[in-house]
Amino acid sequence: MTTVQDGLRFLTQYLQNERQASWPEVVVDHPMREARLLLAHAMLLPADRLSLLAYDQLDESTLETALIYASRRRMGEPASHIVGSRAFYGRDFFVDKRVLDPRPETETLIAAALAAPFSQVLDLGTGSGAIIVTLMCERPDSVGVAMDLSEDALAVAEQNATTHGVVDRIGFDVSDWFQAVGGQFDLIVSNPPYIAADEMGALQPEVRLYEPRIALTDGADGLTAYRRITAGAPDHLTPGGRLIVEIGPTQAAAVAQMMTDAGLSDVSVTQDLDGRDRVVTAHKA
Ligand SMILES: C[S@@+](CC[C@H](N)C(=O)[O-])C[C@H]1O[C@@H](n2cnc3c(N)ncnc32)[C@H](O)[C@@H]1O
Fold first, then answer.
1. Nearest Cα to 246, choosing from 272, 207, 264, 217?
2. Is 125 annotated as belonging to a binding site?
3. Does the beta carbon of 100 lie inside 6 Å of ligand 1?
4. How far out from the chain centre does Cα 66 lie?
5. Domains, the chain, with CATH or none
6. Alpha-carbon distance 101 to 105, whole Å?
7. Is residue 148 in contact with ligand 1, taking CB distance under 6 Å?
8. Residue 24's pLDDT band (boundaries 50, 70, 90)?
9. Cβ of 149 less than 6 Å from ligand 1
10. What are the pLDDT digits (tens) for 36-52?
């Protein structure tokens, strides 16, 4: 008899085996964790249920399904696309090729936003909607506006807002940063594309091939979006309002200077859990 535990062990080994000859760059960094996700998905169960079922029988067709998922993973497809969701700040978000997978680092931006009260939020470059949906869930009296240049991304964000019961409190629209934004907000958040064009070649294939280029890079020095966002923010912040952006770890000084030059004050930098500069916050006087 094959048990769930046997299946998990087999899939873990399969994922950590030597790199694909046909695709030598693909390395599964967390084979055990991803094996759990894929097996649970094949069993139509949440991953945290697997341990309880470790000694139950695993039928052959379920193991075959899990193996198909694992072979897709070894060919480079992200586990989040195979299972159709990614966990972010304790909630599951639907993701596919239309959006960036929400990253754990972005939870640092959420923590910074939640550190002070807000009631009207603007999320620029909303992608999957992970940021705005989380903020609306965490602060049930708030309302928000979610903008993105990608209509495809907005469709995903709206789907996630519906799933999490906050769609009625968010307006969605296509906008090139502030171009279609009206009114003022006491909180503006953004995690814009910040990878420089010449850094793109170093990305893992699952990022380069499965996430939209527009979500990753500005095609230039990685700072284009910050120039636009910091220049536009003062007109769209209420007095005392905050601008909070995620950054790449080497961009803190440049982005902080842009905020100061735009007339914003109390500029501060927050580190992520790995101790890298990750979020810059500024206030309108
Ligand atoms: C790094 S992703 C962030 C997605 C999501 N906010 C998150 O944190 O997971 C950047 C997002 O900015 C959007 N974007 C890129 N250029 C833009 C522009 N000129 N105006 C508005 N949004 C843009 C992309 O479509 C993408 O959804």
1. 272
2. yes
3. yes
4. 25
5. 4-83 (1.10.8.10), 99-283 (3.40.50.150)
6. 11
7. yes
8. low
9. yes
10. 999 999 999 988 889 89
